[in-house]
Design brief:
Number of domains: 2
CATH superfamily of the largest domain: 2,3-Dihydroxybiphenyl 1,2-Dioxygenase, domain 1
CATH class of the largest domain: Alpha Beta
Helix content: 10-25%
Strand content: 25-35%
Strand order of the largest sheet: 5-8-7-6-9
Structural class: alpha+beta
Order of helices and strands: EHEEEEHEEEEH
CATH topology of the largest domain: 2,3-Dihydroxybiphenyl 1,2-Dioxygenase, domain 1
Distance between the termini: 54 Å
Largest sheet: 5 strands, mixed
Number of helices: 3
Radius of gyration: 19 Å
Length: 175
């Protein structure tokens, strides 16, 4: 096995940036109960089941993609979420194509009685924060067009965190 030499400082950056077309393709989550997870990801959020491996794993997607989210119980059946003060996933982010699509997600969550942990306007995006049934953090968001992103006079990006008006967002749910 080849080894990779790590930089001496965590503050060092790569001399060559990663290709700008790189995207994060999918996330694979360990869950305690596959059916409960499918009820949430398919039943509440609206993802489609694309493949299932018995009672231990399933893949879900949007728009016919092979999978955006993998769910499995291989090491976690009946397990508990990690406690505070442990490492692991903070949250995964699911990008919606429009503000109306994000509003529809908010409507789905409200109808299912799923509580939000937060809702923020970041200037570049609007985001809803919640937990899935296994305690995994989820951000549902849409990006504003880049020309609307807040910038300083010298052109530097200036993201913010402001309270998101949920009633205003929800009014977009049918638009």
């Amino acid at each position: 096995m080849n080894s990779i030499t790590q930089p001496s400082s965590g503050a060092e950056t790569s001399v060559r940036p990663i290709h700008p077309g790189v995207r994060i393709g999918h996330v694979h989550l360990k869950v305690a109960d596959l059916e409960r997870a499918l009820d949430f990801y398919c039943g509440v959020l609206g993802f489609e089941l694309t493949q299932r491996y018995g009672a231990q794993a399933a893949f879900v997607s949007a728009g016919g993609y092979h999978h955006h989210i993998g769910l499995n119980t291989w090491e976690s059946a009946g397990g508990h979420p990690p406690g505070p003060g442990t490492t692991g996933l903070f949250h995964m982010a699911i990008l919606y194509p429009t503000r109306g699509a994000l509003a529809d997600a908010l409507r789905r969550l409200a109808e299912a009685g799923i509580p939000l942990e937060g809702a923020s306007d970041h200037g570049v995006s609007e985001a809803l924060y919640l937990r899935d049934p296994d305690g995994n953090g989820i951000e549902l968001y849409w990006d504003r067009p880049e020309e609307q992103w807040p910038r300083s006079p010298d052109g530097q990006l200036q993201m913010v965190t402001r309270r998101l008006d949920l009633n205003n967002l929800l009014a977009q749910a049918g638009a």
